[in-house]
Design goal:
The chain has 363 residues and is α+β, with helices and mostly antiparallel strands. 39% of the residues lie in helices and 21% in strands. The chain is built from 14 helices and 12 strands. The strands form 3 sheets. Strands 10-9-8-11-12 form a 5-stranded antiparallel β-sheet. It has a 4-stranded antiparallel β-sheet with strand order 4-7-5-6. A 3-stranded parallel β-sheet has the order 2-1-3, with helices on both faces.
Length: 363
Amino acid sequence: MNISTSRRHLVLLCGGRSAEHEVSFQSAAAILQYLDKTKYRISVLGIEKNGSLCAPEITKQNLQLECLQEINFPNGQHWIPIVIELTPAPEMILPILHGPFGEDGTVQGVLEVLDIPYVGAGVSASAIAMDKIYSKKLLLQEGLPILPFFSLNHETWKNDREYCLRRVVNELSYPVFVKPANLGSSIGVSKSNTKDELLKHVEIAFNYDDHIIVEQAIDAREIEVSVLGNTSPQVSIAGEIIPSREFYSYEAKYLDKTSELLIPAPISQEQMKHVRDLALETFKILRLEGMARIDFLMDRDTGKFWISEPNTMPGFTDVSMYPKLWEASGLDYTALLDSLIDLGLERNQVRGRFSVDRHEQSR
């Protein structure tokens, strides 16, 4: 990619309107530490949980960094007019917003309308990958390995709870996982071993989304692969997570910080190749761009890999697998960020081919 990198104006969006608000600030803080300040002029816009713009001092406090003198923290009521009015105009947006209203195509749609390049997948790919129901159905349709599951909406749950219980008995078996359809960082995810636990855990999941999934649980190892690229994506080596709790919950990821990350994953060469191939195929089928972390469950008894979920805006904290896997694959954190920014610019240039002017010229 022959794209100049001289002091581009980058705008980092963080915080956001999801339950992953705090995680987003942790990712943004790590990114700010590793961005090459000689290449980029950086503005940071923190977004409150209600969607308004954080006051600069609040954003700084949430980032918990000491050296922020080189960073611009614009002030205002909402991030969209601020982005439009910034001088110099933004050349790249880093929407480090995990979960709904950031990772689900909503922010990507705004940036497409504004014609501002951004890091990561486009509108439709972000929306589909974020939705566990649709992404699993699409991958299953393409013949990829997905564990048995069913989806449930809140209205059905309110009117007929026995329907859910019958489906678990008829289609799955305890234990099962209950997950909000549109959320990450394992927030709202529970493992149900009994009917009573299931009733409680479904209520918890519906606190975060009107649609949930109930998925077969297996005795599995948790394997993850990072993907980087647009039309010619590359995959990292695979890593394994040894959770400090029964599964890799939010608490195990970000609170007790005693989970182990094994890089590379202690699996055979054949298994390593297979899971990397599956990650690449998942990335391509969902038409992802820029980056994704693809999570897998590896059956302890059979060694079979099952796709758990794709993450189009994976964590970038000091305990996050995405940058760690690339570092172990020969691409350090700073170079990784440079690559992601270049990929966003490349994608924007490609999309520029499909303009109204070209249509007019072809008539």
